[in-house]
Amino acid sequence: MSANATILSTKKLSVAQKELLLNAGIGVVAYSAIEIEILDISGTYTSPIANAIFTSKNAVKAIQNTDIIIDVCFCVGENTKKLLEENGQKVVETAKNASDLGKIIAKKHKTEQFSFFCGNIRRDELPAILKENDIHLEEKVVYKTHIKTRKLNRNFDGVFFFSPSGVQSYFSNNVIGTGTAFCIGNTTASEIKKYTNNIIVANKPTVENVIVQAVKYFDKRI
Predict the structure, then answer these.
(1) Which of 27, 49, 160, 222 has its CA 20 to 30 A from that of 118?
(2) Does residue 1 lie within any of the structural domains?
(3) Which of 161, 151, 153 is nearest to 7 (CA)?
(4) Which CATH number covers residue 47?
(5) Which candidate, 190, 206, 167, 201, places its Cα nearest to that of 57?
(6) Which domain holds residue 52?
(7) DSSP 3-state assignment of 110?
């Protein structure tokens, strides 16, 4: 059993996810560091879209139940791919992160034109790679990320991070001290490195794998 470790999650966890921690003897506190506002884009994009890029499930949720016609999709993450396919979309390329997806597009689809369905706070890596390779990209903002700052007057043995925005929200009013940052992927880890080098990155970009890394880490500390 873990030695009275307590984790803070910057995203609300399901009952099953909390139980994974509690069963390992790890305490957990969770709050929402960010809030996602899905925009109403019904009737906004009337022309068929040949190639659509999605780097988050939030963007996919924004096109659900709309009349947008998309030929093929390019996405980041297996969960995003799964959600697209569940909505009847055809996914032709998937990558672990936006940089890798940009490189795949630059190598294999250089003559195509793309539409990037994204949030108002988006990373620069993918647009920068496409611009460097003279690939046409049109950005379509379909959701907004709202930072929800909160001052937490206690220390935690570890903190879970799931997005660069969540990192920014947490560190706007808090420090991590000697705690360990557990993050869902390398993009989030890059943002965390501004504040601490004590970072563990999940093997797979899922909440469950972040939890698994924490359980392994605190078991080793016994």
Answers:
(1) 160
(2) no
(3) 161
(4) 3.40.50.10090
(5) 206
(6) 39-145
(7) coil
pLDDT of residue 2: 45
Using an 8 Å Cβ cutoff, are 30 and 11 in contact? yes
Confidence of residue 187 (pLDDT cuts 50, 70, 90): confident
- With 0-12 / 13-18 / 19 or more C-beta atoms within 10 angstroms meaning exposed / middle / buried, residue 154 is exposed
Same structural domain, 70 and 10: no
On whether both 140 and 52 belong to a single domain, the answer is: yes
Residue from 114, 94, 112 nearest 104 by CA? 94
Check pLDDT > 70 for residue 3.
no
Domain boundary among 89, 123, 145: 145
What are the DSSP E strand ranges found in the chain? 6-9, 27-30, 34-38, 49-54, 70-76, 91-95, 114-119, 137-147, 158-161, 180-183, 199-201
- Three-state SS string over 118-177 comes to EECCCCCHHHHHHHHCCCCEEEEEEEEEEECCCCCCCCCCEEEECCHHHHHHHHCCCCCC
- For the chain, the straight-line distance linking the first and the last C-alpha, in angstroms and rounded, comes to 8
Counted domains in the chain? 2
Q: Which two tokens stand for residue 156?
A: 């935690």
Are 95 and 17 in a shared domain? no
Q: What's the one-letter identity of residue 128? A: A
